[in-house]
Write a structure and sequence with these properties.
Strand content: 15-25%
Order of helices and strands: HEEEHEHEHH
Shape: globular
Number of strands: 5
Structural class: alpha+beta
Radius of gyration: 16 Å
Number of helices: 5
């Protein structure tokens, strides 16, 4: 059975909370809206989880943009994997990156950068990027 992204996200949140992890959902940052993040006691992002309805065939532009933060990024597409993903996230070590730093100007990509978020109303720019295969990585 295919589950919605929201259902998978909610199940992962539940599994993480059961083992005592601090979790934030749909966190809006300068690099985009993060589906699920693991937070340290000092409000630092230690890991990011991108939830999809089905397994992507390639690394998405979104995931590549998140990786610029230098934080572990995981993807999850099966509800059956939520418990094991929570245990994997519990084992992530490191200081993480403070939320204030992620939202600062230092993580904003120039609008010409291939990983930059498209401006609102920039359909022409998006179509040009798509035609140059910037959004598809093997």
């Amino acid at each position: 059975m295919n589950h919605s992204e929201a259902t998978i996200q909610a199940e992962l949140y539940h599994q993480c909370r059961l083992i005592g992890l601090r979790v934030a959902l749909e966190l809006k940052t300068s690099v985009g809206r993060l589906d699920l993040v693991i937070l340290s006691d000092r409000e630092c992002v230690q890991a990011i989880v991108e939830v999809k309805k089905m397994k992507p065939f390639y690394e998405t532009l979104q995931v590549r943009r998140y990786k610029t933060l230098g934080i572990p990024v995981f993807d999850l597409w099966r509800i059956e994997d939520c418990a094991s993903m929570a245990l994997t996230l519990a084992g992530v070590n490191g200081d993480g990156v403070p939320l204030s730093v992620i939202n600062s100007q230092s993580f904003k990509l120039s609008e010409d950068h291939p990983l930059a978020l498209p401006k609102r109303g920039s359909r022409k720019r998006l179509m040009k990027s798509l035609s140059q295969n910037r959004y598809f990585f093997g």
